[in-house]
Amino acid sequence: MKPQFWLSAFLLVLLFMPRTVVRADQRYVITSAKDNVHQDTWTLSGENWSVSKRTLHGGKQDGVDLITIDNGVMQIDVIPTRGMNVYEVRSGDIRLGWDSPVDEIVHPALIDLESRGGLGWLEGFNEWMVRCGLEFAGHPGTDEFVTNTGDTATMELTLHGKIGNIPASEVEVVVDSNRPGRIRLRGVVYEKLFNGPKLKLVTELSVVPGESTFRIDDTIENQGGQQQEFQIIYHANFGAPLLGKDAKVHAAVKSVAPMNDHAAGEIDTYATYDEPTTGFAEQVYLVEPSADENGKTIAVLQNANGDRAASMQWTVDQLPYLTLWKNTAATQDGYVTGIEPATGYPFNRKVERQAGRVPKLDAGQSRRFTLDFTLHRNKEDVDAMIQKVKAIQADHQPIVRRTPPAN
Amino acid sequence: MKPQFWLSAFLLVLLFMPRTVVRADQRYVITSAKDNVHQDTWTLSGENWSVSKRTLHGGKQDGVDLITIDNGVMQIDVIPTRGMNVYEVRSGDIRLGWDSPVDEIVHPALIDLESRGGLGWLEGFNEWMVRCGLEFAGHPGTDEFVTNTGDTATMELTLHGKIGNIPASEVEVVVDSNRPGRIRLRGVVYEKLFNGPKLKLVTELSVVPGESTFRIDDTIENQGGQQQEFQIIYHANFGAPLLGKDAKVHAAVKSVAPMNDHAAGEIDTYATYDEPTTGFAEQVYLVEPSADENGKTIAVLQNANGDRAASMQWTVDQLPYLTLWKNTAATQDGYVTGIEPATGYPFNRKVERQAGRVPKLDAGQSRRFTLDFTLHRNKEDVDAMIQKVKAIQADHQPIVRRTPPAN
Amino acid sequence: MKPQFWLSAFLLVLLFMPRTVVRADQRYVITSAKDNVHQDTWTLSGENWSVSKRTLHGGKQDGVDLITIDNGVMQIDVIPTRGMNVYEVRSGDIRLGWDSPVDEIVHPALIDLESRGGLGWLEGFNEWMVRCGLEFAGHPGTDEFVTNTGDTATMELTLHGKIGNIPASEVEVVVDSNRPGRIRLRGVVYEKLFNGPKLKLVTELSVVPGESTFRIDDTIENQGGQQQEFQIIYHANFGAPLLGKDAKVHAAVKSVAPMNDHAAGEIDTYATYDEPTTGFAEQVYLVEPSADENGKTIAVLQNANGDRAASMQWTVDQLPYLTLWKNTAATQDGYVTGIEPATGYPFNRKVERQAGRVPKLDAGQSRRFTLDFTLHRNKEDVDAMIQKVKAIQADHQPIVRRTPPAN
After folding, report:
1. Å from A283 to nearest chain C CA?
2. Per the CB < 8 Å rule, is B225 touching C109?
3. CA distances, B158 to each of A69, B108, B112, B141, B147 (Å)
4. Given this model, what pLDDT does residue C22 score?
5. Cβ <8 Å between B225 and C104
6. What is the mean pLDDT of residues A352-379?
7. Which entry of A24, B169, C24, C205 is 20 to 30 Å from A165 by CA?
8. What is the pLDDT, as a whole number, of residue C325?
9. Quick check: is B341 in a domain?
10. pLDDT tens digits, residue range A189-214?
11. Which chains touch B (3 or more CB pairs under 8 A)?
């Protein structure tokens, strides 16, 4: 054949390679360590939605994968390289996310979790939603573990664990063929080592085209041969525009307690926020959520006007504890609040274990965690969701503890 | 010239670039930090053999180089990115290797050796043969060293040292022009720092086409200006199919001792293996091998039937100590045994130094370590090799110590 | 259009893509995390100068960016991946640089600063000029800091801080349109974390075509909302050919003190160098430089013959302290001297703070540091520069302290 033919063929291949035509009920592999697959850039699109993947370059983000799901209403950024953390959700004038002093999406290869006495995690912390866990999820400090010789030794836990800094090994998009055509972004993240936990996290973030709701549906499996402790905190972080002076958090509360003496002094206003305040030291409140007859509970963060809000719904059987982290510091230092459903509180695991808040998985056992997030764009919608919170609360008076738990 | 000509030329270059025609006695550079060379994929092949190099993608293995040598009988995977460790050797139904809970070949940039109290090495541990060393090779824990100010200070050693997590700086293939046409894969790995050891490891793994034997031939050189301690353990790890219930290890033994009290209780059956056992805590035995009149010794791992085996031969002048590591844990937790010729035992270097098992290299001095590995495919071959072990043992009764060494 | 046209177009694009034609007063972006830009290779050239960027491959340097500025007289290598450190300056038979036992330009992803009791920095140390800082810049050891809960805790500082192992987020070249057409290589390096320092370093290394002088012009800005301590040491390191037996350092000295007892014994010869000496333990001298009426001071390193030298000039208001680090060890161990203008001395920050040598930046405040370096190629030039040092010294007798500072 003539060279011209090959040229045309070559250019055609170039042109169409990165795109994929959508077929119903189809599975698209973006990354697979198993099959040695990694797409540098990748796009999939439907009538009013798209999923696109790119690789970030420059500085501390060099080589970081970023996937954006656009369902026509929201754009959701997910970071496979950082354990499928959700960087940001954008929808009109609403944003789930915050302005961290950490600007770039930092590659885990540049993070040293052991740095700064176990606070190295903070050098990469800028996501809207970062999972804490899985072996340990809370504060740094000494705890016991079993060494390679079978002896009990101590190790220094690091803040919020490893899972948010582990690259996903398998990433795929699945598009349901059936109505409503849910689009699912799945990632598999392994926190496994020899003589240590063998935990597999299967994450799924899914949307329906045109809807203002998305779902996180995770499964944690113990792939080891023995019983294994685990912890998970869904560390969801909100800055402007939802957070601001007089913004409020609404939750159905069985009890609330301050995490330390500093927070104790402000417990009466734990549910409302101040403007950015230079030198503000974080205040953390520990909530036992109450639930409806189906075990569901709701937390809502509304802006000051009450005409924009984000809500999250989950089952207290799955995530029985809720931490409210108030960090209304100066804008440059990170003006942010965390609303954090979890298997426990963010104390060091040693404390959590003593309090009976560290669950275990038998060999081969798994547990599922489902959270639904919704954006609310007007006063009626916001009020309706707050009413649902109040309905769960009903006439149960929240127990307000004025001193931190005695650990 | 016409564009068509350039197009054809361009496509021809594309077509032939990654392949290389073999010439006798030739040297092929795959990686060179010195000359800024890195081949993403690369293949060299002869009549009945090939060497191919690829880059792994996805998850924790992204960017890891993997070289496979196929001599027509065996396929051997070597990992330049992880210090020229040998991932696996496959030959028909024999495999040298094991199923670690760590599935991927983890990039050293994601490994923190200081993690978990110095046990971070375990997050990447899944190779058939990983070298431990070179500054230190054994258990974590405090030892002394000389700081940048010339003072003596203490540092926390990390499990099994750094060399298995350092990318090779120079990687090349050399094909002998003379019969039998040995194919040599060479890698240079530097464990050097300012105000610390300046050790150069030159590794060579070589095969002869059609043979069931391969050789590891390493040289460690002290490139510093002063005397330098070093340690090396050849941590060779075997799982199924060789390892199984009633598999046996055969070695010519001058003495054997348990490493700790736990192992002491099982010393009478130290040479045979159990089936995978949930919750099994490792048992480690410390062997002084005896040697023949040429200083050679042999260790053999045979399967339960005695019709498959792997043997290793080395010189006790080079590697005077042998550690048997029995870890017949549940399959999911890593069912594996280590047969580990070394310059010492895997105690912390402080203990090894006191016991006189930490060798030193003068400035510019080097030491060589040669190990021959053979696969045995039938009962006759296996028995013949076991007879060689017995011939070395002769009528010398092994000294069996029933208590761990007093450290 | 015919395929041939597209082919030609395609080849033309390929041909011209990496080159850029120079226009006056132009700004060229090489790396931008903000705009997701990273050039793998890049060249810009003028009449008698060029700036070229390449990516290093192989071993520990894989993925490291290296930029070489050639002004017709000097070639200067800058490492964006390692905080804009200057690897080497070459000009005829003069070299600013040294032969470290660390041969490769090590990627920060492979450096663990916490390693070896906080001395991990030494595994990548081989540059002519490496900045130490910014949160801390001196010796490792325990110091206090404020945690995420607002409490005071202790952390282990690591040797010489982080900035030299942080990839630059933004890198650009600016060419002045006005005479003399200064060529500026700018890099922005962030040392920022949540609940920690938020420091921005803007570095600029600039040359004028045909001149033997170059300038480093840095600005450190506190982007956080609160006052922040910082430290910076310009750790400039010289080996052969300038350093050698009977080489000398000339500085205008208000006072000089030994850093420890070991250095105290040799204080009378602190300004001259010995030949490479096996087992030499570093000697460090702490200098308060005196300045001329404009606040300028000068340090000169001359070779033994006095016909080659390098000088550096700076303002003592900006950098009031000068450390002389003599490490005339064996060649293989690193025969090198450091001439290090700084905001303080390289003691642990705790010591520096007590001595009042840790400056602070208010929220939004920045400080600038300008250093001019000149190469001197003959006896007249060298003598003239030494005379300038003497003119600053005038008849002020240096205070020579014979014991280390009491910390």
Report:
1. 8
2. no
3. 42, 14, 10, 7, 17
4. 47
5. no
6. 98
7. B169
8. 98
9. yes
10. 999 999 999 999 999 999 999 999 99
11. A, C
Is B174 within 8 Å of B27 (Cβ atoms)? yes
State the pLDDT at residue A149.
Answer: 72
DSSP conformation class of A274? P
- Is the residue at C378 inside a domain? yes
Strand intervals (E) in B115-178: 129-134, 141-146, 152-157, 170-175
Picking from C54, C123, C281, the nearest residue to B193 by CB comes out as C123
Q: Looking at the partner chain, which of C59, C330, C333 has a beta carbon nearest the beta carbon of B33?
A: C59
Beta bridge partners of A119: none
Confirm whether A232 is domain-assigned. Answer: yes
Element (H, E) at C379: helix C379-393
**Which range marks the domain in which residue A60 is found?**
44-400
Instruction: From C202, C200, C199, select the one nearest C185 (Cα to Cα).
Output: C202
The whole-angstrom separation of Cα A346 and Cα B394 is 63
Tell me which residues of chain C have a pLDDT lower than 70.
1-25, 148
Residue A173 Cα, gap to closest chain B Cα (Å)? 15
ipTM metric = 0.92
Q: How far is CA B103 from the centre of its chain?
A: 18
Here the CATH number for the domain that contains residue B86 is: 2.70.98.10
The closest alpha carbon to C49, from C181, C178, C170, belongs to C181
Q: Phi/psi of residue B246, each to 5°?
A: 75, 5
Q: Where are the alpha helices (DSSP H) in A50-138?
A: 115-118
Please give the average per-residue pLDDT across A226-242, as a whole number.
Answer: 97
Provide the token pair at A60.
């501390």
Contact C343, C320 (CB under 8 A): yes
| Residue-wise pLDDT tens digits, B327-382 | 999 999 999 999 999 999 999 999 999 999 999 999 999 999 999 999 999 999 99
Q: Taking CB atoms and an 8 Å limit, are A196 and B281 in contact across chains? A: no
Residue A361's nearest CA partner among C206, B332, C14 is: B332
Task: Find, in chain C, the residue whose alpha carbon is nearest to that of B81.
Answer: C59
Choose between B148 and C301: higher pLDDT: C301
**Contact predicate B404/B257, CB 8 Å:** yes
Neighbours of B19 (CB within 10 A): 10
% residues pLDDT > 90 (chain A):
89
Region A154-182 average pLDDT = 96
CA distance B160 to chain C (A): 14
Structure-token pair, residue B1: 């010239």
> Which residues in chain B touch residue C262, judged by CB atoms under 8 angstroms apart?
149-150
Q: Is C75 exposed, middle or buried (0-12, 13-18, 19+ CB in 10 A)?
A: middle
Q: List CB contacts (< 8 A) between B126 and chain A.
A: 194
Domain assignment present for C214: yes
How many helices and strands, by DSSP H and E, does chain C display? 5, 28
Min Cα distance A48 → chain B (Å) is 29
pLDDT over 50 (residue A338): yes
Chain B residues closer than 8 Å to A117 by CB:
none
Q: Show residues of chain B in contact with A3, CB under 8 Å.
A: 4, 7-8
Strands A42-45 and A19-20: parallel
Size of interface B-C (CB pairs under 8 A): 133
Using CB atoms, which residue from A104, A112, A334 is nearest to C114?
Answer: A112
Q: Are C196 and A116 within 8 A, CB to CB?
A: yes
Separation CA A43–CA A68 (nearest Å): 10
Check residue B1 and give its pLDDT: 46
Which pair of tokens denotes residue C366? 């920045």
Q: How many structural domains does chain C have?
A: 1
3-state secondary structure of A332: helix
> What is the structure's pLDDT at A259?
97
Contact B38, C62 (CB under 8 A): yes
The pTM of the full predicted model, rounded to 2 decimals, is: 0.93
β-pair type (B253-258, B399-400): parallel
B167 within 8 A of B83, measured Cβ to Cβ: yes
